Amino acid sequence: MAYFPDVTKGDEFKPSALLSNNVRRLINGINGFGGNGVPGTGSGVVRIQVYNNAAAEIPAGSAVNFSETASLCGDAVPAEVFTDAAKTWGVITAKLAVKQMGDCIVSGPATVAISGDSGKYASPNPAAPATFTRGESGSPILFVANGKGIILLGGGSDTAYDGPFKVGLSDDGSLNISAGFLNRNGEFSTVAAKTGISPAAGYLCLSSTIEDGVWTEPEYKITTPAADAYPVAEISVDETGNVSIRQYQVVVAIILLTKTCPLTKE
Asked: Do both 197 and 130 map to the same domain?
């Protein structure tokens, strides 16, 4: 069964065939008709009651974090707009006005908006909490079409990649990259973390080349992978500006360059 929020006085009410059929099946099951009196009880969905502790309405299907400073309201947990993937989060099932209570899914199937063209997983985006982005980490995607999909919270891959050259989004929408390891013609070094890179569609590469016999300083570019440009992630930007990241799990970026010796030309 789908979730149907309460109808309160003053709401615009429109009869629902789905709700009516669910009620009929429930009653028929109680009366002994049909094989399962309460379909959906074994769906594995875990919900908690929350209230909107943010300063504005939170759209349905948004990811939310839970406030560590606000108080419980009965059994309702204070929910706020998603900002931190490292903290516990869930997906609200219906839009919540300020201080309004509702349901939040913390485990099991959840319906969300999804952007991006590739990846078997989806993660909430702090820059747009109402839209999840596809990639190689996050919650498994069970179904996706036309920008909507069903993800499985707690489905076994919620832990994002956290190794060298991890690429993420800052609060201002720019790319940030963790430190990594570089091997240039056998010379091993560490590349420092980098922030503030403007996202664009293409391959994010760690680039370094030889000029006048000296290696140039390693830098990140959105460019075509090449002998002197090692790809660490693929960046996608949809028509609405939402950014998705396909992370490559790179242990060591390797750049090997050769030059023709001038003496061999003679």
From this structure: no
